[in-house]
Amino acid sequence: MNRHLSQRLGFSLLTLIAIITVVPIISVIVYIFLQGSPAISREFLLAVPRSGMREGGIFPAIIGTFYLTIGTAIFSVPLGIAAAIYLSEYAPDNAWTRIIRLAIINLAGIPSVVYGLFGLGLFVLFLKFGTSILAASLTLSIMTLPVIISTSEEALRAVPQSFRTVSVSLGATRWQTIRRIVLPQGLPGILTGVILGLERAAGETAPILFTGAAFFLPRLPGSIFDATMALPYHLFVISTQVPEMPIQIQYGTALVLLIFVLGMNLIATVIRSRARARRQW
Q1: How far is 41 from 43, CA to CA, in rounded Å?
Q2: C-alpha closest to that of 143 among 83, 208, 187, 66
Q3: Max CA separation in the chain (angstroms)
Q4: How close are the terminal C-alpha atoms of the chain, in Å?
Q5: Using one digit for the tens of pLDDT, what is the confidence trace for 98-137?
Q6: Does domain 57-278 have CATH number 1.10.3720.10?
């Protein structure tokens, strides 16, 4: 009887913790939606800002955020997955690889402003990329690499060893086994890491503040060497630096950024679900 009572108390406690965690998140999302939805219109989404950003729209910031996210994915995803494959499949289990894994975990906890200062010194000043989409994308890529590497490695290591053994016994090379067996089976976990990294990159302000974001640029960038507006920095500016800014525009910008991030998550969830349905374990 005591065992069943303890089990019920444990389940009740876990349920209470889940409710305490989920309810505030849902409340914030609903509040932003209610406050920001009146500002959403065709002009708000497709027009450039004007009158000191108090009127017009946020189209350049939306496109800039999209460019930065795509640029981050181009640089960080292939490198992160390649590093995860090496650590999971090729690297020996010795002190050196353990130090590398510890360094990756520590890099994931570094404040984003430090990455911004690093990007400023390396990409903007030393490599002379200037304040540009390229410099900001490279900085965001370095910031997201630890998350992608660590989650992708765990996803690959979770694939049963028997899959590798059977593949090699049938005559496949090590790379063929990784490419045709291990990677497809670990795809759901890899996608989780990629989306977590890109979502963080899409919502960061400090790194792009130093490397690529413009305060007010009512036009689209012409190349990767141009600066751009971005939703996180634009939201920071209109919330703190622009006097008499209508509150609806602030919440409308926050709602668009929220939809952008949740949309990425939704797409990844659909792809991950289909990959899990094809998984053989």
Answers
A1: 5
A2: 208
A3: 71
A4: 37
A5: 898 889 988 888 889 999 999 999 999 999 999 999 999 9
A6: yes
